[in-house]
Sequence to fold (93 residues):
Amino acid sequence: METSPGVRPVLDPVRCDGTVACVWLPARPGRVTRLSTPGELAALPGVTEVSMLNAEGDLISAPMSSAHVAGLVFVTAPTPDDVDALIRGGTDR
Fold:
């Protein structure tokens, strides 16, 4: 948001070995009836950070943009293939 009016953002980069991915958890209009908790997601292998924007019981109204997500999960692994395996393993639960 800061870059829109031409303001230089303050960045605090974190050094990380391996591959980091941000997984967008999809959201649809309607009442959220089932959604993993931040604690459940944080307990999955490779998860380093969880930011939930919605919770069970929330009402998501339409119209939505393609950028609307229920949450973000950051995953770290040694290689991109390892990240893919972690993400696929997490979606199987």
